[in-house]
Automatic annotation (TrEMBL):
The protein, known as: Pentatricopeptide repeat-containing protein
Organism: Platanthera guangdongensis
Parts of the chain that traverse the membrane: none
Superkingdom of origin: Eukaryota
Recorded family membership: Belongs to the PPR family. P subfamily.
InterPro entries from the UniProt entry: PPR-containing_protein (IPR050667), TPR-like_helical_dom_sf (IPR011990)
Length: 134
């Protein structure tokens, strides 16, 4: 990964800028290596440079972050997905379930409401769980 970052720095120094494929390749490697902090930093850089990450990469990053219980970064990646309209039903439902099971009910309710408002369908079992938990 150090070589990849060095290569990206050299590209910019020589007037060539990374494209979405370069970002995607590095992100896949970071996800595979479970480099949580680096995933967020690179995603933010990608968005800053006006490249939209693929839904599959964001889904993979979200799953890894939820498994590691890194809530701050998970929420930031979720916001990137919402902001770029790449959040899907499957990862949205998984996100709400994960928040519920980890005793983060206020956040689960907030994000569930946001998902419904943005047209992401939540499973009825998840809505029932939220309702019964309240």
């Amino acid at each position: 990964m150090d070589v990849a970052y060095e290569f990206m720095d050299e590209m910019v120094f020589h007037g060539a800028f990374p494209n979405s494929k370069t970002y995607s390749w590095i992100l896949k490697s970071l996800i595979k290596s479970k480099k949580l902090l680096e995933i967020h930093v690179l995603l933010m850089g990608m968005v800053k440079n006006e490249f939209v990450p693929s839904p599959s990469i964001c889904d993979s990053a979200m799953n890894l972050l939820m498994d590691s219980k890194d809530w701050g970064t998970t929420l930031k990646v979720w916001k990137i997905m919402i902001m770029n309209d790449i959040a899907g039903e499957e990862i949205g439902n998984s996100f709400i379930i994960c928040l519920c099971y980890n005793k983060r009910l206020p956040e689960a309710c907030k994000y569930a409401e946001d998902m419904i408002d943005s047209g992401i369908k939540l499973q009825s079992s998840i809505l029932f769980k939220l309702r019964s938990s309240l």
